[in-house]
Amino acid sequence: MCPSRIVEPTRGRAAPGPATAAPAALEARGLTLRFGGHVAVREVSCALPRGSLTAIVGPNGAGKTSFFNLLSGQLRPTAGSIHLYGQDVTALSAAQRASLGIGRAFQLTTLFPALSVLDNVRLALERQRRRSWRLLSIAADDVPGIEQARHWLGRTRLLDREHEPAAQLSHGDQRKLEVAMLLAMRPRVFMFDEPTAGMSVDEVPVILELIQEIKDDPMNTVLLVEHKIQVVRSLADRILVLHNGELLAQGDPAEVMDSPLVREAYLGLAGARS
User: Fold this and answer.
1) Listed residue (50, 99, 52, 92) closest to 71, CA to CA
2) Domains of the chain, start order
């Protein structure tokens, strides 16, 4: 497991841990991604402890999104491997990783705009059940499914909007709906790509509260990419700092943020956005 103090990254292999420790929820081992002559991610190794919330931070162009996409399966690494609870999932697609327990929310919402809020969550439930979506028979024949969907809408404060088309929701409510869909799929690892991007000041606290509730369940592990430093400080148990595609530092947020190396590489550049 990644230690809880600032460390210089060990390239090509994960940081050592106790021999008897359970596998990390998600682990990267020497991940590298090249686009032609450009190295977007360079030999990054890290493990996300079970039940933790880890934030990936760094200046623009640091490789955050590329690394995030490698973990979720949207990109394939040039070198290195990815392990989910000890299982090598490097060769698996994003959909296959989702079936094993990785749930991802995108920076731009990925909803079915013409379907109702309720039916978007029911679609996620069908996927979690590994059944095909029955477009011609989604009315009243699946009472347990409807009740489960309403449960998750209640958790995300959207129950009173259940019959509205998803396209009519505000951006913030669409993000809440995406969280409801993630919850319905019952992933073991939740991944959020800038969850507060594009939100109004009034909408941000609700999303952060939802992520905090997910984090509070010790069975969940959360990884997020976030630019806003105050969000990172309020939510993260630990952070990873990327710079020029390399893992610059990792560990306790307060310690890492106070590192002169990190301040020079990241905070000085991002302070205006924080």
Assistant:
1) 92
2) 1-101+191-274 (3.40.50.300), 112-186 (no CATH)
CA 84/CA 86 separation, integer angstroms: 5
pLDDT by residue, tens only, the chain of 274 residues: 443 333 333 334 444 444 446 789 999 999 999 998 899 999 999 999 999 999 999 888 889 999 999 999 999 999 999 999 999 999 999 989 998 999 988 655 678 899 999 999 998 888 766 555 554 345 556 788 899 999 999 999 999 999 999 999 988 899 899 999 999 989 999 999 888 887 888 888 888 999 999 999 999 999 999 888 888 888 999 999 999 999 999 999 888 888 888 877 765 544 434 3
Q: Which amino acid is at 73?
A: G
Q: d(Cα 214, Cα 196) in Å, to the nearest integer?
A: 16
Go through 26-52 and write b for each residue having 16 or more CB atoms within 10 A of its CB, e for each that does not. bbbbbbbbeeeeebbbbbbbbbbbbeb
- The neighbouring-strand residues paired with 204 are none
Structural tokens at position 229: 């430093």
Distance CA 247, CA 2 (A): 12
DSSP assignment string, 144-169: HHHHHHHHHHHHTT-GGGTTSBGGGS
- 3-class secondary structure, 125: helix
Bridge partners (DSSP) of residue 190 are 103, 222
> The pTM is what?
0.82
Alpha-carbon distance of 31 to 54, in angstroms, equals: 17
**Residue whose C-alpha is closest to residue 147's, from 159, 133, 135, 164:** 159
